[in-house]
Amino acid sequence: MDYTGVVLLIGLFVLNACSLYFITQSNLMISGGMNIAAMLATVVLAYHFEQMNDIAIVIIACFVVVLCVVGLKLYLKHKNKNKE
């Protein structure tokens, strides 16, 4: 049995549960840190199971989509500013 993968998966679930708890119940503003830690645990888990090539392709695709959306917003904002 692969105990490292099981521990990483359990840790991922615990980090997500803590993040949800800190979003809804706590006055501490550390839910963002918990989300970042959960993303890092996801990357480590994927690396452990040798799926980093697929993850890298998805991350690059998401980055390109975000850049397109931000570029479109800036273009429309600039276009509306020039119209007035």
Provide a descriptive summary of the structure in words:
This protein has three helices and no strands. The model has no long low-confidence stretch (mean pLDDT 79). With 84 residues, the chain is mostly helical. The chain has helices spanning 3-24, 31-48, 52-83. It starts with a helix and ends with a helix.
Q: Report, as a whole number of angstroms, the end-to-end distance.
A: 66 Å
The poorly predicted ranges are none
Anisotropy-based shape: flat
Give the strand content.
Answer: under 5%
Succession of helices and strands = HHH
State the major sheet.
none
Rg over C-alpha atoms, rounded to the nearest angstrom: 19 Å
Furnish the topology, listing elements before pairings:
Blueprint: H1 3-24, H2 31-48, H3 52-83
Helix pairs in contact: 1-2
What attributes does this structure have?
flat; 84 residues; single chain; mainly alpha
Report a brief summary of the structure.
With 84 residues, the chain is mainly α. It has 3 helices and no strands. It is flat.
